[in-house]
Specification:
Number of strands: 19
Strand content: 25-35%
Mean pLDDT: 88
Low-confidence stretches: none
Number of helices: 2
Order of helices and strands: HEEEEEEEEEEEEEEEEEEEH
Radius of gyration: 26 Å
């Protein structure tokens, strides 16, 4: 009976974790460049059921273990905006962002120009080019961003977007709604010229599919309710057993 309660509790904890992941996906369904997550669980086998008596040798107990979170790095839908500072990346690449915590990587191309003329993200972080932060002059107009990331104005060049890729995208960790950090041992690789596909005047929307996430939320809720009902029944059985054992024979 104790085994059933512990196994049920491990399942409820995993379902709570999965609900957190699904809720975060739904909350960012309209976040530009957001990549959805999926919780990954695995079976954890205990060596034996010490609190039970079996006719055969102790059987193994199967618990649920929260293993990790998988990032869905698939391309989100591209929406044309007509804004010359909006960019979308078609392919497996990231723009490099300078933050107070170090370099970060994003596909959120909703860019703007700050008061100093720097090209920045919506959070105010500088976008890095091949030679440092991308900067404009006060009179720059008619900004053109080519497919290879080159940034130009009628008076000349303003640099080129620094685009990188990773051999192990799943090892990246989220640092904000649409920004990733690379842990130790994961190094960014430069994107080859033929792999550069920057689309000016467009944005990559979130790759979260609302209908699927709502379906997952309903499924998680139902599973949690079923486990809670099972645990309640186990508790009532335990209470009934204790009461019967405490009865004084007539």
């Amino acid at each position: 009976m104790e085994n059933a309660l512990l196994i049920g509790l491990s399942r409820q904890m995993s379902l709570r974790r999965e609900m957190d992941v699904v809720s975060n996906n739904i909350a960012n369904i309209n976040t530009t460049g957001f990549k959805g997550d999926t919780a990954i669980f695995e079976e954890y086998l205990m060596p034996g059921a010490s609190a039970d008596q079996f006719a055969r040798p102790d059987r193994k107990l199967s618990y649920v273990l929260d293993r990790s979170t998988w990032h869905d790095m698939s391309q989100g839908p591209v929406q044309q905006t007509g804004n010359p500072l909006d960019v979308a990346i078609d392919g497996d690449a990231f723009m490099v962002v300078q933050t107070p915590r170090g370099e970060r990587y994003t596909r959120n191309g909703a860019l703007q120009m700050n008061s100093s003329g720097q090209l920045v993200t919506s959070e105010g972080y500088a976008i890095l080019g091949d030679s440092g932060p991308v900067e404009f002059q006060a009179n720059d107009r008619d900004i053109l961003i080519a497919r290879d990331g080159s940034i130009g104005v009628p008076d000349g060049s303003r640099g080129k977007l620094r685009l990188v890729k990773f051999d192990a995208n799943q090892r990246l960790t989220k640092d904000g709604s649409s920004t990733f950090a690379a842990p130790n041992g994961v190094q960014p690789q430069p994107v080859l010229p033929e792999e550069r596909h920057v689309l000016q005047g467009s944005l990559e929307r979130s790759n979260v599919r609302g209908v699927i996430e709502m379906t997952r939320m309903i499924e998680v809720t139902r599973n949690y309710t079923q486990v809670a009902t099972m645990l309640q029944n186990q508790g009532e059985m335990r209470k009934s057993a204790v009461e019967k054992l405490a009865e004084v024979p007539a």
